[in-house]
Amino acid sequence: MEWEKRNRHFLAPGNINDSHNNRPKLKPELLAPAGEMAALKAAVENGADAVYLGGKAFSARASAANFSHSELIEAVKYAHLRGVKAYVAVNTLIDNQEMAEALEYAFFLHQIGVDALIIQDLGLLSVLRRVLPELKLHASTQMTIHNAEGVRFLAKWGVDRIVLAREVSLAQIAQIHTQTSCELEVFIHGALCISYSGQCLLSSFIGGRSGNRGRCAQPCRLAYSLEPAGTESTKPPAKGEASHLLSTRDLNTLELLPQLVEAGVSSLKIEGRMKRPEYVATVVRIYRQALDRLFNNPADFQVNAAEKRDLEQIFNREFTPGYLLGNPGRDLMSHQRPNNRGVYLGRVIRYDRQRKQVRIKLEDTLRCGDGIEIWVTKGGRQGLTVNKLLVNGTLREEAYAGEEAIIAGEAAMHPGDRVFKTYDGQLMSRALESFRQTQRRIPLRVKVTAAVGEPLVLEAVDP
C-alpha cells in the first residue's frame, strides 16, 4: 500500500501521457506467415502488406522449412519488388556462446535489406542497439509484453514495434495504444498456446525441447487423463473421452476487425509458419478482402458466409476470439481433438458391409477429391478420400445438400455417425492457383526523356 501511495501520480490514468489519444486510425498492416518460399508467394499474391519468416537458425519455428541465406535473399527481393515488407524472426533465446553468430546473422539480414528483426533476447537487443542502431527491431510476443510500461520500457531501448502477448483484451490494447507511441502488433488468426506467451516450459520439461529455443514438441496437443490428486494412476484416456485437456481452439478475429482497428493496432498478424501455402493463401485472401471492405465502407461492414466457411474449411480446431473479449474460460479449449476438425457435412444413414459402402445424408456439397472424416460411434475416427460418388444410382462428380451420397468405406460405420469434410479439393485448387503465377500488379509512374543526339531515357518509379 505504501508503494501505491508514493506512486499514485504515476498510476492514475489521467496523469499518464495520453497525447496519442487522438491519433488518426490508419489502415493496419496485414502481416502473413511464410515458412517456405511457396507460402511467401501465397501471402504476397493474396494481398499481404508484409511477411515474416525465419532462417535456419535462431527461429522459434525450427520445425518449419525456413530459409537458407540464399533463399532469404531471394525472398526479400521477391517481397520488396512487389511493395511488401519482409521481417525475419530471430526470436529464440540466445546462449552466451551463440551471441557472435547471432550478431553476424543480424549483419547479414541488415545487408540484404530486411525491414525488421523480430527478437526475444534482451541481450541481443542491447548489443544490436549499439552496433546496428539503424536496424528496426520488433519485440516478439515471446517477451510477454502486456501493459503500457512494458511497451515504454522497450521503446526506450529503441524497439520500433511490440508484438503484444496474446492474453491482452481489446480494452487493454486500446489503453496501451492511448498511453504509448510505439507500433502495436496483434495476432488475429491461427494457433494459440495454453501458456502465457513466451512462458511455456512444458515441452522443455517433458521432452527436453524448449519452445523458447524453437523446438517445441507441442505436448499441449497430446491426450491426457485427469486424475484426483494423490493417485498414481497412469491409465490412458478412455475412447470418446474429452482427453486433449491442454489443446486450445484456433484464434479467429475476422468479425472483430472494426474493434481491432479502433483499438489502434498497427499490424494484424496471422499465425502459421508451419502451415501449408494453400492455408496461407486462403486466410490472407479473406482478411485482405474484409479489411479493404472495412475501410471502403465502415458503416456497412459485415463478414459473409462464404468467408466464414472457407476459414473453417481450410483449418480449424473450432474457433475462439481468444482473450480479446475477456477471459474465455473453457471456451478457449478444444478438448475433443487437437487437429483439423473440418466442416460438418452430414450423417451416416447406412453402412453396407458386403459392398463396403457408406450412405451419407448430406448437409453440404461433397465432391470427388474431397477428404472426409467419419466420427465413428465405436472405433474413433475414419478418414476417407472420395474417389467415386454415387447418387440415385448415378456416378457424379459432386453431390449437394439434401441428397444421399454413397461412397466406398472399408471400416464399419453406424447410422447417426457424424461426417466432416476435412479437405476441400476445390478450395485447395483455388488457393494454389492464386499464387501459381505472379498476379500482383504494381502501379508505376513512367517518365520518358528523348532529345536529339542523346540516349533515350526511361524512368519507372513506384509512387
Summarize the structure.
The protein has 463 residues and is α/β, with parallel strands linked by helices. The chain has helices at 2-6, 8-11, 37-45, 69-81, 99-111, 122-131, 148-156, 170-179, 202-207, 257-263, 277-296, 305-314, 425-436; strands at 29-33, 50-54, 85-90, 116-119, 137-139, 161-163, 183-190, 250-252, 267-270, 319-320, 343-352, 357-362, 366-367, 371-375, 381-385, 389-391, 394-396, 398-399, 404-408, 418-423, 445-449, 457-461. β3, α5 (99-111) and β4 (116-119) form a beta-alpha-beta unit.
Question: How would you portray this structure in words?
Answer:
This protein is of the alpha/beta class and 463 residues long. It has two domains: 14-332, TIM Barrel, CATH 3.20.20; 343-423, Translation factors (Elongation Factor Tu (Ef-tu), domain 3), CATH 2.40.30.10. The protein contains 13 helices and 22 strands. A hairpin with a 2-residue loop joins strand 16 and strand 17. Helix 3 (37-45) runs parallel beside helix 11 and helix 3 crosses helix 13. Residues 1-20 have low confidence and may be disordered.
